[in-house]
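SAMPLE LOG
Freezer: B-3
Tube label: C17
Construct: single chain, 186 aa
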Amino acid sequence: MKAPSRVETTRLVLVRPTSEDAATIFERYASDPEVTKFLGWARHRSIADTLAFLDFSAAEWERWPAGPYLIRARDDGRLLGGTGLGFDAEDQAVTGYVLARDAWGQGHATEALRAVLEVARSVGVVRLYALCHAEHHASWRVLEKCGFTRDDAWSQQAVFPNLGVQHPQDVVRYTLVLGRSGTQAG
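STRUCTURE (predicted):
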């Protein structure tokens, strides 16, 4: 079963990205050093980087039940950021989110993540997780508000390409077990 290409919430619309979105993605968030600081993917240095992301996105949507979504404001269509699902298996996926600076602190990440949780349930994801830098407390709060719990037994490090340091940093994993009937567990 495929996820919908468009998901609406009270204030947001999540849509599957297309090549026409490249310039706006690049300008709004993917090239911003502050926005991309704690992300696991390298800041986009050119539109070519954004087009490569869009190729990746199309391939994910082709291979799996869902993939990346863009987050747009429902009232005016303005691009606010991105979210989505990355599959490890049919029933296990990773999620995350990124927002343009002018969209920070307004509850958009929480609202978008809650919509992604419903998409995950609808396509049969049972275990959903998110990874974030150990010092990215704002991301922790969003995950916890959405029912994720920190997996303190899991320990890993990774290089965050936009921090300007080349040694591995601590990564925090949050998990959520989704019930098949639309209920949450664990």
